[in-house]
Amino acid sequence: MSEAPVTDWSRGLELKAGDWFIGLYQPSPETTGYWQGVARHELLLKNCPACDRHFHPKRIVCTECGSDALEWKRASGRGEVYSFSEVHRAPSAAFAGATPYVVGLVKLEEGVHLFTRFVDAPVGIGTKVAVDFRPLELGNLMPVFRPEGA
Prior knowledge:
Blueprint: E1 16-17, E2 20-21, H1 32-39, E3 44-48, E4 53-55, E5 71-74, E6 78-87, E7 101-108, E8 113-118, E9 128-135, E10 141-147
Antiparallel strand pairs: 1-2, 3-4, 3-5, 6-7, 6-9, 7-8, 9-10
């Protein structure tokens, strides 16, 4: 009986789905409005007009009332660090010059959690942050968060 090949994780492994890197700029039909907002330097979230709840850009149905009539609404752009991690090993050659960098979850004032890059100053759990827009390593304009006042 032959043994299964062992993957060498020591150099990292690119996570790809077709031509897309997992977790990076990935427009899809349900997020078109989000990316249009990013191009205008606006952070947009899905909003249910029936119960005024905000949702992640990928949400297609209100989890409160079941409505599928969600609309795009401008977010405050403010929140706090919910979780973070400092990346020391680049996921691909395009990110090699950026390491170390900080990624994590921001909890927006609207209650929505977004995965993001934190920039301009160290952050910790609970750090108050505000949105900014910057082109990142792959050239795409992305929302990033910086400590308020930085």
